[in-house]
Specification:
Blueprint: H1 3-27, H2 33-80, H3 87-168, H4 173-185, E1 191-195, E2 198-199, H5 208-216, E3 221-222, E4 229-231, H6 237-243
Helix pairs in contact: 1-3, 2-3
Length: 244
Amino acid sequence: MNNILSILVDLQNIDSIIIEKNRIIEELPLKLGSFQKPIKEAEAMLKREAETLQVQERKKREKEIEIEDAKERIRKLRQKSADIKNNKEYQAMLKEIDVLERAILRLENDILDIMQDIEDIRNRVLSGEQKFAAENRILKAEQDRIDREIEQINLEIVSLKKERVTLVNKLDEDTYQWYMDILKRTRGLAVVEARNEICKGCNLHIPPQLFVELKKGGEILNCPQCRRILYYRGESKHDADTSE
């Protein structure tokens, strides 16, 4: 294989690894989405329960006020009992007090039910807060793991870039620029293998004569379809068998 072509093949291998590692770095944070979903659900649940708790506590306060108002009414009625002149008025007063006392009893039962609801809601809130905290710990652990992985990959990329500089320094400026132009145009794949008269970049057939010249390895050749730089590594036993 042509020496310059050999360098270009090695350069492509490094660039392909760097591109893949950068892709992994971009995609790793996306994995947090599955860990964030339970947290969002827990947050939504806590918000709903907090709103329900406020409603129930407001109902409790309203009924407590109603009880206080009824008790105050009873107190005033009893204060006026000394001024009542006849039995009819007295019986009417007793009836009103009875109605108020029944109302108080009903309101107290309502409050007991509301207090039970409040207790249930607070238990659900506590459970939700515990779940939220647990999911946050899981998310934090996964975030830390991803951060460590990204840090390790970045270190590997730094090392690869040093190797890349060594290879680039072996190329003249025009050849390197030619390689880079193809790399950008073909989205990261400038140098590809040709096997069984097929370009592995575009998977199209290349002319037989071009393939013969490529096998000789005397010069750097391009695929006539995709214009990528071609190299020939040699046919494997499997390739040889399938070509017969």
